[in-house]
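User: quick one, sequence for these tokens?
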């Protein structure tokens, strides 16, 4: 692994450690009333900073220059993995139905929260310097094209799934709920959502062919730049406020799926299923091999589900990436 990527990983761990230290010292206050500073910061990211980033990204997206073959070769197997993990988690919940009914919407969000931890990678803080160092300008261009659709596709699919699960759970408790009412509630909650709505608004602005006004663009860019440092500090604070005992085992499983199973699936589907080769294949596989990204924690906090294991999985998978990245680079070199 190149020195520049190692330095980026070290900087990430330092930022997480700063958040953990601040949390342990309780600089942001104590947890009370079912809330804590980590959840407050997560809500700020989810409702303010991430929507600004998503709107600006989609509003400025040049769809005519997208490497669509690579996009398809990457996102098809990733969405397949998402649905497999989500489906497996839903089946596992059937045996816990009685406990889930008592836990309400928190339990209903567990399958989607588990799925996002497996498929949503750290494509910016680690992925961009990795691609720049390994593949140069050409590879970085492909990587950024995938990044521009990463949150749009995965968060939109996951939001639809979790809102449908929440609607089903509410219907169980409400005997008067009809199928039409449940569907209407699901659609409304999926669209009027701090992730999906700014994406749809950005795409609508993009379709109009109008540039973003200078002050608006600068404001959105300023808000968007806060996402990376805020989320890294948030991971550390969450570690300090959340009991992770018992979360290590599922975090290890998530890390194995994220670092080994997902890139293997992308490699097989992209190379032998869709005929991708060369630099596009390398970029797609290495993007799939990235550790779990901080958006998974924001999602878990939003729906109050699997917060401890998601926080732990981010740290464990980032540490494991130091070992698995050279492995995937060696595999790709053999296929060249």
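Assistant:
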């Amino acid at each position: 692994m190149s020195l520049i990527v190692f330095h980026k990983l070290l900087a990430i761990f330092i930022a997480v450690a700063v958040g953990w230290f601040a949390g342990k010292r309780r600089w942001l206050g104590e947890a009370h009333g079912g809330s804590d500073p980590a959840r407050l910061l997560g809500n700020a990211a989810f409702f303010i900073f991430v929507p600004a980033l998503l709107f600006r990204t989609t509003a400025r997206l040049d769809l005519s220059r997208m490497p669509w073959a690579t996009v398809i070769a990457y996102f098809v197997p990733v969405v397949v993995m998402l649905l497999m993990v989500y489906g497996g988690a839903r089946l596992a919940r059937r045996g816990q139905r009685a406990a889930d009914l008592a836990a309400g919407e928190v339990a209903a969000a567990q399958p989607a929260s588990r799925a996002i931890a497996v498929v949503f990678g750290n494509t910016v803080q680690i992925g961009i310097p990795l691609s720049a160092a390994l593949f140069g300008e050409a590879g970085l261009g492909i990587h950024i094209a995938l990044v521009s659709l990463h949150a749009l596709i995965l968060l939109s699919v996951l939001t639809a799934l979790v809102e449908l699960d929440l609607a089903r759970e509410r219907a169980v408790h409400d005997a008067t709920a009809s199928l039409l009412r449940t569907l209407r509630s699901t659609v409304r909650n999926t669209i009027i959502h701090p992730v999906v709505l700014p994406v749809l608004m950005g795409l609508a602005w993009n379709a109009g062919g109008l540039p973003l006004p200078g002050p608006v663009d600068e404001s959105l860019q300023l808000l968007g730049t806060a996402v990376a440092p805020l989320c890294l500090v948030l991971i550390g604070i969450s570690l300090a406020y959340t009991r992770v005992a018992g979360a290590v085992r599922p975090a290890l499983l998530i890390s194995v799926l994220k670092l080994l199973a997902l890139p293997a699936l992308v490699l097989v589907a992209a190379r032998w299923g869709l005929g991708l080769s060369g630099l596009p294949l390398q970029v797609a596989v290495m993007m799939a091999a990235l550790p779990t990204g901080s958006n998974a924690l924001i999602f878990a906090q939003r729906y109050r589900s699997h917060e401890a294991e998601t926080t732990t999985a981010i740290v464990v998978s980032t540490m494991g990436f130091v070992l698995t990245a050279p492995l995937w680079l060696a595999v790709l070199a053999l296929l060249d």
